[in-house]
Write a structure and sequence with these properties.
There is one protein chain. The protein has about 230 residues and is an alpha+beta fold. It is built from four helices and five strands; from the N terminus they run H-H-H-E-E-E-E-E-H. It has helices at about 5-10, 30-50, 55-60, 120-210; strands at about 65-70, 75-85, 85-95, 95-100, 105-110.
Length: about 230
């Protein structure tokens, strides 16, 4: 074929066996063990990001990993199409599987990703995560309520302080007004007493002057002579 192919067919002969070149990406092709390790890392990363099973499965699907149920919905099998040495293949792996002897119940082999990647373990993980979030929310709510209560008590104390300060100011103002009123009354009494004293002093002086003033001597009274009646002499 190598000597006569071109003569017979008119086309150049290319030997598919001798011309087979080594693939450049031979060291980057995925093996099943490498895919299993990558799948574990991917599941661990997605678990930390999402909060429920539905979002977990959606995130896996976005990364090309599909999940089917087995054992009447109690277990999972992971699927993904990857580029391997034999071409693109769909690799699959159970979440957790153990072959147990039916009589002795002895575990003979354990295959799959591991017990922590089983459906039951992941469901339990998200349930605990949800409970922790509720507890954290409750703790935060209690802490927030405690802070609000402290703020309320502080505001009440400030209000009582302001009210007491206002009461004290009013009491001081009333006391000041009362003191001023007493001063005005005392001043009036003092003025009145001073006026009375002055009047009494003036009265005393007047009486004293009257007592010391000499009495006037009256003229001696003359006896009245009888008037003579004038008339014709008889």
């Amino acid at each position: 074929m190598q000597n006569n192919y071109q003569k017979v067919t008119g086309r150049q002969w290319t030997n598919p066996i001798h011309n087979n070149q080594t693939r450049k990406d031979i060291h980057n092709l995925t093996t099943k063990s490498a895919w299993q390790h990558q799948l574990k890392e991917l599941i661990t990363q997605i678990k930390a990001k999402v909060d429920n099973i539905a979002d977990f499965l959606k995130q896996l699907e976005q990364h090309g990993v599909t999940v089917t149920e087995r054992k009447r919905g109690n277990a999972w099998t992971y699927y993904q199409v990857v580029n391997t040495k034999t071409g693109c293949r769909e690799l699959k792996l159970r979440d957790f599987y153990q072959r147990v002897d039916k009589k002795s119940r002895e575990i003979k082999t354990t295959r799959s990703l591991g017990q922590s990647f089983s459906k039951a373990a992941i469901e339990d993980y998200f349930n605990k995560k949800k409970e922790n979030e509720k507890e954290h929310y409750s703790d935060g709510r209690r802490e927030s309520d405690g802070i609000e209560r402290i703020k309320t008590l502080t505001e009440d104390a400030r209000a009582r302080t302001r009210r007491q300060r206002r009461i004290n100011q009013i009491a001081q103002q009333q006391l000041k007004e009362a003191v001023n009123e007493e001063k005005r009354k005392a001043s009036k009494r003092k003025t009145r007493l001073s006026d009375q004293k002055q009047r009494q002093t003036r009265g005393t002086k007047r009486i004293s002057r009257q007592a010391t003033k000499p009495k006037r001597q009256g003229r001696p009274k003359q006896s009245r002579r009888p008037r003579e009646v004038e008339g014709p002499e008889l």
